[in-house]
Amino acid sequence: MNKVDREIVHAYRHLYRGLLHAVQFSSPVRYVARDQLRSAFRERGASWNPEGAKRTLWFLHAAARETGLEHKILKNLLRVRLQQEPVEAPARDGVEPLRNDGGDAEQEHGALPALSSASNFCVARRRPVRGQGRGKNGDGR
User: According to the lineage, what is the superkingdom (predicted)?
Assistant: First the structure.
């Protein structure tokens, strides 16, 4: 394993740990954050940006430290991503599932690339490629 590969593995671990602290280990969004981070590091043709990873880690530390602007931005990004994922809950009699009007996704479409380019963060709006999404069990297998 060369120096760059080792640096990427360490960055992945630091970013994942920072994400867990930023979301306070809460159950539904920790898995959304994990899946986002995995897909970003597994994406073919992605380039390594150590400065962007460092700034993203600073952002995550600020989000974990206090419930300020960084925490609210991260919380909303993960909430929107969670709502975009299909829910595989068993149907209950007489209860209709909640429907999303798509307004949040439209706002995210313009805001996230602007945030990413303005502050040199490693956040990008990604959609799963057809055929490479989540498995039946919802665990990526």
Answer: Eukaryota
Give this prediction's pTM.
0.65
Angle at 68 between CA 63 and CA 119, to 5 degrees: 60
| Residue 99 forms part of a structural domain | no
The count of C-alpha atoms lying within 13 angstroms of the C-alpha of 93, restricted to the half-sphere facing its C-beta, is 0
Is the Cα torsion angle 29, 35, 41, 44 positive or negative in sign? Answer: negative
Torsion sign over Cα 96, 94, 88, 36: positive
The parent domain of residue 24 ranges over 3-84
Q: CB of 56 within 8 A of CB of 17? A: no
Residue 108 lies in a domain: no
Q: Give whole-number Cα distances, 85 to 11, 24, 28, 32, 101, in Å.
A: 26, 21, 11, 9, 14
Model pLDDT for residues 123-139, shown as the tens digit of each residue: 654 554 444 444 555 55
